[in-house]
């Protein structure tokens, strides 16, 4: 590769790797951008042609600083603010709506920081009010700075909010009642969404039509996204180069056919078909809402048309860099979008594969070209997905061999033809019926694929060796000069890769414990060599969202699930477990109403697995006078002389009653009732003397858990305190031979020297 391409490529790769490593906006990112800025500044002194990179980087730096300045001040977290805003996105749910608002004005209480810089928020409205795109409203919102749960190997919601430009999240207050200021101005896209909602189609069909043709991907449910992610087919649903390219290609072929009829002697020289294809690409991207994927696809399609037209056109690599620069200038936060890197890596690899090769001829030639491209690009894209998400769909290369042509030649054309022919009675609806049948075939194929080849999450230490093997395979199969023996050796190396599960690394007599960050609720996983137990299932929020859905890919197996009691913050994820995973044995207290067939959790039960001793200390059999909280299952786990105690939501009276059964001292205590003052009594703490105390509580929760009095009591016992609200998920191992080391998922400044 020419040095003019190699040097910027290396620089961009370095930037991309570092920026992808950053999990969100903080001081480290400022220092990183400043360092890169200085490095590029020195390069410009010696290579003047790199000046454009300095300009682009400066623009990114300024834009990032601008975004930080628009975030909700921490002093307004949990406070009410009055805003006037326009609705830019609506996702209607049962009894609620999720709104994206473009803020026009914001007023905070006089004694608090100003919120005038706020520009975009994402809120939930828990009412039956119908909200429409484009409407202007005055509302009272309760907001907090953008944040998300911090759990191992899960989607980083806080980073997603950052790259989507969301400056605060929260909900709409019903008092004072929201006031509509103006009706929605009619738009083609809004009219299309409303027309689609009125069609006699299945709900699933309407969702997928909205996503595939209008770019309204938020219509898709959590189940839809889980299925797409598990099969590596997400790129087929969001408005991407595939959809915009199909529209542009269809218009180009139609226009050139017309040009051939009108000017048969020199139709190849006509420029207007190319311009018409470009206008179609821009129009479709605008109709789809010009979201970042659609905007990126539009830019790449326009430059692709320019290159293919051959009219004073740049080379493929020049067009690639030009597209990259334009996307960054238009959307500086795109550097944090994995889709940007995946898209440009895919296009760059296609250039490498096809540069210097003749264009395919005929249907047979194009079919072989599509098959060859898909096979050659699959290992590299799998490696990129592994780096970005540490998960990979093992069946993605095979499923995409069918899914790509099926979606591009059947589903998308029938969906778009439905819109084109919708003015004709019955014909447009017939095309959408054809789309519905094609969608059912596609959906069934995805379900079968997930069943036989579920999403793979290799151990963290194996991610980069696996990435290296996949990249090596891509290189060996893409270049013609590689010896045949090496080409076939790399796939054998991949097949012999040690695909052992993470729990196989555990020693006999060791149990690994993870207290997940699930907000105001509790979910704890205990895992040994051949045994997996869950204590509680996390909350279910008013919107219907269950954090448990995001923790593991579908198809997990659990030997036992103990639900401490039926409160929503402890049993909210039961339905998700029933739907997506397999549970051998459920345990619940007597008298708790849960939708599972379970055994009773009763004082005195005990069992051993893999050298670990489990014992139920509470509730007693036959005591029906207890409240739901005081019926909580209390679990004690022992590995040699190390002990973990989980008390659920029991109060101080129950704590005193189980003291005689607690083996002290306690190494790790999950504080009762999330740190409420109803639990963690002085006598209990003095006897148990917990070394580490973990509060499973939500950030900025309305109950102020853990309360100050409880925190002071634990500090008087010189306990080391942790909270999922601040530290994210917390992981540690109980072993007879090693001291306990609690590892927080979210690294906070300042070391806990006392711990």
From TrEMBL:
Recorded superkingdom: Bacteria
Listed CDD domains: ComA-like_MBL-fold
SUPFAM superfamilies given in the database record: Metallo-hydrolase/oxidoreductase (SSF56281)
Keywords: Cell membrane, Membrane, Transmembrane, Transmembrane helix
InterPro entries assigned to the protein according to its UniProt record, in alphabetical order: ComA-like_MBL, ComEC_N, Competence_ComEC/Rec2, Competence_DNA_uptake, DUF4131, Metallo-B-lactamas, RibonucZ/Hydroxyglut_hydro
Subcellular location, principal: membrane
Residues covered by the Metallo-beta-lactamase domain: 520-673
Topological relation to the membrane, as annotated: Multi-pass membrane protein
Membrane-spanning segments: 36-62, 236-259, 271-290, 319-335, 340-357, 369-389, 401-421, 427-450, 462-486
UniProt cross-references to NCBIfam families, sorted A to Z: ComEC_N-term (TIGR00360), ComEC_Rec2 (TIGR00361)
Name assigned to this protein: DNA internalization-related competence protein ComEC/Rec2
Organism field: Halomonas qaidamensis
